[in-house]
Amino acid sequence: MTVPCVRVDREAGEEARRRLAEDNLVNQQREIVVEDGYIYIPVTDPAAVADEYAVVNRSAPERETQTMPADLVAFDASYERLGEVVLIDEDDPEQARELADAIVASDIPTKTVLNRASKIRGEQRVRDWEVLAGEETEAVHREYGCDFALDLAAVYFSPRLATERHRVAEQVAAGEQAVDMFAGVGPFVVPFAKRGAAVVGADINETAIEYLRENAERNGVADRVTAVHGDVREVLDDYESWADRLVMNLPHSADEFLDTARRLAGEECVLHYYDIQHEDDPFSPGVRALRDAMEPEYAVEVETEHVVRSYAPHEDNVVLDVRLLRA
């Protein structure tokens, strides 16, 4: 049986394996194969592998399964990984302790286990964490070929949105001018810049902006990234009528910033507007808000209505991809 494998030169094998593991793409059911100067690393999702890697189909022997947290506990071992920082969300202190111990004892590379201790709060968009193992809250997360350093105690970041960020980034063309109005540490900004766009990222969280600048350097795109600290409504006057593309990923209150989006938009602009609404009518409120804010200065054409994920019982996190054409 053949399986998809990343093929790299032998000397680059460990780096490639590490990066694929950080993206949870290594197929743990198959052995890594060394042959004719190449290393073949079996992967679970070839479509998610960074473009810099060649993916081929070939045979790879089955391997003994590594010890995973689910093997060590009697309940659902739910967790997320950001590099070597593992995140859990357990209300039961005993179960949280048991899961953290299982994660540390498993074969997952782990330096810290954090349990969510609060919801996201405040304009800085941060949450409290309970440290169950290790000490550091800083992580380096790899996502679709980009590296992001961040401190979970000081900034907002969700690995659950990786697929959505990649969906949007794939629409970006070289030479575009893009603005991320709530940029965080750069998960939209950096991949946009890697595709050749000039990108401005603003955020009210100063620590997030510091990480954004670091991540632009880390990914070799600092020359195409401008990071601005402050309320986007007040700090981007130099970019009025500039943007070919706008990202508004602040789903609870993005409607409060639509006047600013209208000022930043160029003659023609694609706007990615994120919202949270009841599942019975998830898109109409956002469409109404966009039309009320943009018309008659812009014609509003809704190109995509997309459910990103379930947010809460009967509530969906959705996105509207909208094309604005100045009337």
From TrEMBL:
Signal peptide: none annotated. It comes from the Archaea. Gene3D superfamilies: 3.30.70.2580, Met-10+ protein-like domains, Vaccinia Virus protein VP39. Keywords: Cytoplasm, Methyltransferase, S-adenosyl-L-methionine, Transferase, tRNA processing. One of its GO terms (biological process) is tRNA methylation. InterPro entries: MeTrfase_TRM5/TYW2, SAM-dependent_MTases_sf, TRM5-TYW2-like_MTfase, TRM5/TYW2-like_N, Trm5a/b_N. Coiled coil: none annotated. Residues 79-326 form the SAM-dependent methyltransferase TRM5/TYW2-type domain. GO terms for molecular function: methyltransferase activity. PANTHER family: TRNA (GUANINE(37)-N1)-METHYLTRANSFERASE, TRNA METHYLTRANSFERASE. This is Class I SAM-dependent methyltransferase. It comes from Halovenus salina.
